Each structure stands twice: as structure tokens, then as C-alpha cells.
Structure prediction request, 319 residues.
Amino acid sequence: MTVVVVGAGVAGLACAVELAAAGVPVRVLERSDVVGGRMATADVAGRPVDLGAAYFTVRDPGFAEVVARWETAGLARPWTDELAVLAGGSRDRAPGPMRWAAPGGLRSLVEELATDLPVQLSHEVHRVGPGPVVDGEPVDVAVLAMPDPQALRLLDPDAPAAAELAERRWRPVIAVAAGWAEREWERLPAAFVNDHPVLSLVADDGDRRGDDAPVLVAHSTGEVAAAHRRDPEGAAVPVLAAVRDLLGLTAPPQWTHVRYWPHGAPLADRERPFHLGDDGVALAGDGWGSARIETAWRSGTLLGQAVAQRIGARAAGGA
Ligand SMILES: Cc1cc2nc3c(=O)[nH]c(=O)nc-3n(C[C@H](O)[C@H](O)[C@H](O)COP(=O)(O)OP(=O)(O)OC[C@H]3O[C@@H](n4cnc5c(N)ncnc54)[C@H](O)[C@@H]3O)c2cc1C
Prediction:
């Protein structure tokens, strides 16, 4: 019995962790040369900067155990339970759940999940067909742990899993990181930007990382990302002009770094945490719930448990 997980984001690796713990042989295939997916961290100007997810929250008791392990290892730390809300020239505070950050970047948390798992990087999967067959290789279960539009590209249009995915739209985002010579803004630590034509969120990366570096990361609205999909770098000018205007910054940044996410977040939530078809094709990720790291982890974890249970039941039936 073999399981192939396509996608080494937090959902795919959480799924693989469960399978490996249950003794099910599993391989993870990832098209990028790093794990993490949208928990993306880049080394810019000599330090890590989060260019995908800004932070994470913790509600699920199982996820809380994993986060406690990350905290003990120094990989994650509670950041803030109060964000700013900027809207139409006013500034409010938004109390809420604790937001967690990672001193080494959120990708380091996914790297920890990948420890001891067979992950093949720079391995793009092109087709998951009936059988299931992953690029011609028969497997018992194929898990697609990625945004719906990316999974749809791999499936036959008439596959049952494709019917689960069709017609669901995802919002693009452009993240613009920028570094200044010195901190000119009042501590945020991050701000939701409401009803703004260009910005949706601004995060103080030095504050969340804990090194106090004068670095901000701004997330665009979906409209701005869609308008710049063929020229993401071109979004840096309007996004930074909006950030400087919003925070009253007089100095230009010393450097900028842009990352385009064509499928940043699903536009609607789903009730079910994953799909596991009778045909052995399974789907997981934040598309199965809401656009959150915790949702993706839970989706992958529950799917991994369900696949292990199915394989265990088949093995017991055949014995
Ligand atoms: C700008 C932005 C801000 C966000 N902010 C937050 C936040 O503040 N808090 C929060 O909780 N969440 C946030 N999120 C959402 C969070 O990042 C996601 O919910 C989570 O990371 C999704 O994980 P995943 O494993 O489901 O998918 P992904 O991380 O997208 O992983 C999918 C993986 O599959 C790989 N893949 C795709 N196709 C193939 C293929 N054909 N072959 C091989 N590999 C393939 C991809 O390369 C990728 O590594 C944000 C996301 C973005 C983009």
C-alpha cells in the first residue's frame, strides 16, 4: 500500500505525518525547491521575511500540541492578541485571539513537520488519473494538498474529485516587503486595512520576527493583484505609495521584494474538512474550511487519519 501526497504545504505534510505515524508508506512530491507553500519565507537583505501567511491562530487542541512543540523548540512564539484596524484615516485596536509568529519565518514550521519524511523537492506532478495513477505510477491513494485550481489542473475533467473542485473561485494577493534605514512608524504590530482600494493588511516584520528590523510587509487587495497578474513587480509602486500615505512615512524604502499569489485564499468556506473518494483520489488544504494555516493543518491531519484507517481496514479484510 503506498500513498503519494502531492504538495508540501502544511496540509500535505500534516497528512504525511499522520500516515507515517500509522506505518503507511508515504511519499511527498513538491514542485518547488522548498517546502511550505503559502507559509513562505524568503531571505531578503540578510534576514527572513514572511511573504505568504502573516501569522497563525490556534484553536484545535491537536494543533495546540504541535504549536507547543514548535514553541519549546524556539520555532514559534506568541506575537500579539491585538491588531490595529486602519480605515478612512482612523486607527482602532482589534482585540482577538493570540496571533503566533515564527522567528525564523513560517516556513521553518513546515520544515519541522517534514523532518524524517521522504519529500522530493523540485518534482512537479502533471497528471493524477484513474486508478489512481500519479504521472503513470499506480498508487493506492493520491492526495492532492493544494488550492482547488492547482488540483483541478491535474485531474481529468470527469473525475469525481474534479466535480468537488469546479466553480470555486480564489482571490489573488500580492505581498510587497520593504526595508527602511530606520523605523519611522508607530508600532503596529500589524494592521487590517479596511475599505482601501490598494491594501488589505500591513505587518511589521521586525516586530513579529522579534529582531525589530525596520521592515514592513503589505498585502494588496484582490483587485490590485488581479490587475497586476502579468506584472506583479509593477504593484510595488502603488502598494508602497499607499503604505507610506497610510503610516505617514517620509523616507522611501531602501529595498523592496514582491511575491504574487494567484490563489491566495478561497472566496467561500466549505463545511467538510477533506475529500476522500472511493476511487482513491483525496483532496486536502485550506480550501477545505477557511483560508487559515490551522484549517490546512487540520484538513491534512484528518485526511491522513482517514486514509490510514481505510488502508488498515483493507489490510485487515485481506488478512
Ligand atoms: C498573502 C497570504 C496571506 C495569508 N495570511 C494568513 C494569515 O495571516 N493567517 C493564516 O492562518 N493563514 C494565512 N494565509 C493562508 C495560509 O497561508 C494557508 O491557509 C496555508 O498555508 C495553506 O496550506 P496548504 O498546504 O493548504 O496549501 P499551500 O501552502 O498552497 O501548499 C500547496 C503546495 O502544493 C504544491 N503544488 C501545487 N501544485 C503542484 C504540483 N502539480 N506538483 C507538485 N506540487 C504542487 C505547491 O508548490 C505548494 O507547496 C495567507 C495566505 C496568503 C497567500
About this structure: Residues 6-12, 29-32, 37-39, 52-56, 124-125, 145-147, 150, 154, 173, 175, 219, 261, 264-265, 285-286, 291-293, 296 surround flavin-adenine dinucleotide (CB under 6 Å). The CA atoms of residues 175 and 219 lie 5 Å apart. The mean pLDDT is 95.
